[in-house]
């Protein structure tokens, strides 16, 4: 029988970016907050001198243990879903700080178009641009309404950047200047400008200079070591929850962190949550933590799974189109182009996770889609992340996969290849969704989450368009050979593609088409706030973190209001 603990004001399920922001903001206001993190404690001292590509980038030291919990996958409902036995297409973080520890640091704001995508698309192109199977909808909030929260997140994180000439209006400049201009970023920008495009330096959480944030947390300047993606930063120069919001929460004296604590249920009476049930993963002991408010602040997949196993909200049914939880699961496409340079070499082994330049001329609705068979677009970027030897072996496509020719070309091209990559938006489709698997269970006897997903015609059409645009820029950059990425016919759970999963607990203005309102408050349980990219009704042409952070600050404001007045906040 579970041991019942004293009641607190707030419990967060997961302590990464969203859980850390909720904990910091509410603890500063005097509320008692307990943060439950199923992984272990981590800080910068855990990353000292561990630039070990094999341990972190190949063996996924910072990621979820799939032997204890994973997802099952199928392309369509008529197929049998099978478990993902090792991490592949996406990498779920685990441990204090979550995916906010191993991210690259790209920190964009979604475009104004994203938040009113249904209204703006129908106004310009009519109601039948995509067809009824694509479930696009407005977010229930506008860019202008969310802008102050973007600003708050960027100031907390010390983001280094410059204005996006095609982005939404800003109330303030970035708190720190953009990262270094390199030979590679300058070459991309010069080529883009010759083509009439609007390049700018990528907004980065790898800080260009030391910075003290409004909460008094010290962030350091990036060393350009090239160990960002899949690694923690020992310098405290890549902004993460571990060096910002979590220490801020702890300093208040109102926040208690419990690691190795895996939540298996949200307890509720059908109208409101009463607390959560969790297991100490080291001892196997079970505890009940009562709380006035429950913040569901885990990763997209785990937010969805926990609501489904807790029977909170109505599960989505693709056949009838009814229900919400699990609906509008989205991913991203990754078109682009590689350029092979015969007579030039670049210092591609140096860099930082978010050192780069980008153009938004083909993102959102920044270009006319009237004669195109898709909507939205993607950001096209060149990044100098610091390529590492195990996972990077660029050779022309006609190169043998082994032998002397393979070895010779591997050595020749190691620092003679540049890549333009795009993050293409993902539109929700009726047949792409999340639910509980009827067969497979996790280490605690709970059903695994089942992912039903495949690329759509929208994805494939957008992919080709953006890949061709990437190739045009690469040719202008002077590459001797340009290889354009080709779209996969079907999505597969391997190999790695991106960890930008979104949806399933989507936000909106109507309880019939959304799970949470624009404060991330559940329509079906007013004291439950589900915070994360699970709230995105679609996925845009950027990394989701900046928008996720803004929504987390919005949710924190809503939870503070709820603690005083109760009831629905909208």
UniProtKB/TrEMBL annotation:
Transmembrane segments: none annotated. Residues 161-180 are annotated as: Disordered. Residues 216-330 form the Glucose-methanol-choline oxidoreductase N-terminal domain. The keyword Translocase does not apply. Pfam families: GMC_oxred_C (PF05199), GMC_oxred_N (PF00732). Keywords: FAD, Flavoprotein, Oxidoreductase. The keyword Oxidoreductase applies. It comes from the Bacteria. One of its GO terms (molecular function) is flavin adenine dinucleotide binding. Residues 428-552 form the Glucose-methanol-choline oxidoreductase C-terminal domain. Belongs to the GMC oxidoreductase family. This is GMC family oxidoreductase. It comes from Bacillus aerolatus.
